[in-house]
Specification:
This protein is mainly α. Helix content is 78%, strand content 0%. The chain is built from two helices and no strands. The protein has helices at residues 2-20, 33-62. Helix 1 (2-20) crosses helix 2 (33-62).
Length: 63
């Protein structure tokens, strides 16, 4: 199930970046620590929220 959560995280991250007009690619753009930290934090926040939601939904449906 982690593969699905990671896939959804990447899709949501790209959607949020497009909606905000923000894009940073660590491999092709010049190095900027602030943009890198924002990008990593966004991935962590989305992934954590999805894992938390999945665990709560799994508990509800397992009953």
């Amino acid at each position: 199930m982690n593969f699905v959560i990671i896939f959804i995280t990447i899709m949501l991250n790209n959607l949020i970046e497009n909606k905000l007009g923000y894009s940073y690619n660590v491999f092709s753009d010049p190095f900027d620590i602030k943009l890198l930290l924002i990008n990593i934090a966004l991935y962590i926040i989305i992934y954590s929220a999805l894992c938390f939601s999945y665990s709560k939904i799994k508990l509800i449906y397992s009953k």
